[in-house]
Amino acid sequence: MKEMNKSYIKFFFVGIGLWVNQSLYAQNQMPALLDTVITVPPRPEETSEKDSLASALFEKLRATKLSKSKPDTLGKERTRSKEVVDDYIALHHKQYEDSIVVRWAPSNRALWLKANELGYVLIRRTLPSGNTEKNPITLDQDVSQMSEEQIRELIRAKLAEMHAPVNLSNLEDPIRPYDSAQWVSYFPNEDKYALIAAGATTGSLSISEEEGFAVKGSQDESMFGFVMVAADLSSLAADGLGLRYVDRNVKPGDRYTYEVLLAEPWAETPVDQLTEQQKQQLVKNKMNQRGLVEFSGQGTILEVKDFEAVSKEKSVQLRWPVVENRPFTAYIIERSSDNGATYDSLTLNPYFSETVGILDSVSMDTVRYYVYNNDVEANYIQYKYRITGLDGFGDKSIQATVQGMGSDITAPKNPVLKSGEYLDETGEIRLSWRLPEIPDDFEDLHIEFAYHTDSTFVRLEAESINPRDTVYHYTPLPDEYSHYFRMAMLDTAGNSSYSFPIFVNIPDTIPPPVPTEVHAVVDSTGEVEIKWTDEHVDELGFLGYRLYYSNSPDHEFSQLTTKPIIANFYIYHIPLNTLTEKIYYKVQAVDKSYNHSEFSEIAEAIKPDILRPSTPAFKDIRATEHSIDLFWAPSSSQDVVKQLLFRTHKEETVEIEIDNPTLTTYSDTTVEKGIIYQYRLQAIDDGGLKSELSFPLRGKMIDKKKMDQVSGLSADFDKNDRKVSLDWDYAETEGDYRFIIYRNKDNEKVKSYKTVTQNSTEFSEVLKQPGTYFYAVKVIHKNGSKSQLSEPVKIKIK
Q1: pLDDT at 37 over 50
Q2: Can you tell me the distance from the alpha carbon of 483 to that of 459, in angstroms, rounded to the nearest whole number?
Q3: pLDDT at residue 528 above 80?
């Protein structure tokens, strides 16, 4: 048989090498054997009973003498170096209707060669079902006169007898690879993997560089890897290699464990008679056990899970997750262009897929996928794909199918927004542009604006611009400020491209409102605290405030601040050793166009004539669900000995004494939800003199209760204007809240779409695109409370 098949096996092995270049090896899914195409994969961190024997092969070949580095699919470079692989035998099992098939594989070439010489001993232990009616324990002795301990001893002995290990093979007749005489009965045979196994076990298989291989490691090491793959893909190859056993002496409901050992001369020797070296080897052999399996008599049905197709430009990417498909070693992928009537194979040989990391949009975790990219001649031609998994027992899975097609994902060429200017004579903004080309699948052209380049751009008008126009005029509202503009172009596939944004300045000549309620206080140290009503901070074009002072209301005021400040208070020091008893302040608001408001009314501050402590000043107040937290700057007077915090609600004031004069924060946990409290601070010096009370701060604890749900949501569609109008009912609720409109189209995910203020219960928009639209409304309070999403309404646009 050796001479008869040697040339055929050699010829096939060259072919199988070429197949490997396109397979699991070349795709970074299995350890490398060939220097020119292979990288070694990472060592698996965890295994499962469902892992294929390819997992064991990962461990076996990591000692391959390769240190070649290659960028992986995520763009990072990984380097492999030689590692020492411990001796052990990876063992797996699989249930069939009438048997349990056990498969194993040695962890390295040296152990494999040794095992081929010695053979394997396979041990099975039986654990009967816990159902005593199905598996009763029968004692032969009369136990009526026995003590409880004697009966327990009998039961323990009976259980030990029932659970005694059974040698499915032993030292006298271990499981070995087939010899030449045994292989002869299986050939001629079309099983190419059996040919590899036969060549490896009979010594007729050889590899040389003359046959096209660039082998950097030893030939024997390379052959070991091919042999292990062959055992995974062919049950005959696994039998012939001595790496498979079919256990038919099994009963439904019974539970079994299996252990495989090398047929060492001492393998069946009692433990107490072993040498220390043999005992250490026995401990290592515990790695060769496999977990408990309960025989059901129903067999194991596998299928490739979560097989899906992703449309690309003239390509379909087939992918399936790595973790969920661990039982499989390789795959067969087919394609049908007649809706499944016939299929053509896309892979001439079993496909050992590459893996890529894909970001999950929900969990935001990177998930590893096997992928296969199928190039197609044209987009939008529907194909049906079929995949079959090949597990480590030579079996095929149930076929999984999916439909896919290439799609247009190429965006139009970017429009060029050439210029933008504000026309004083008309009060309009004039934008001009050019389009490099108008695509055949043109859909829409429009202008978008934003106040900052890093903020969200919003469509200016719903109506699409004629792509043959080159100029656009827009009339801003009276209270609008300068914008950034950009042009967006979309095709019928939804691909979009954008121009670079340009800035257009809108002249602003309207001054901001005058600041009101200006107050100023001077403490005994000369610290002045000026406050006024804050009405402008949230305005888009607001820049800040300028402060002015004078020693007389009739004199010219000098500027106190060197630049506009955003806060509605200002603190600074003045000398007290002056002849003037009062000081006067006024405030002026400034917008970003540097328009100045009129001056505020003059605020008068009296300079103290006694050295009372300075007043603490609140910096911040923060409310939580459990407390009101206060932060302040303590009195600057050096002789302060304690501080007083006053909390007021209606007519009731609580005084809280703080003995630490430098303390700057306090958490008030004794307040009740829903009540607004006013806080003031006061400092007391060592002479008993009290400072002025601080400027009051008001706050209340957060009460995140559920908001009421909107009711009566309805939707109307005007076919002429293609305008959808929403209307709903909502009982007025105290506080600051808003309505969030949620929308989705067809099968899109529901997401927040627009915001409506609490003063309106209506919303409308123009819908250009046909499809089925769903709308719903949610109420959100400023304190974080929110309602349930309303019942959705549906509008179908043709």
Answers
A1: no
A2: 13
A3: yes
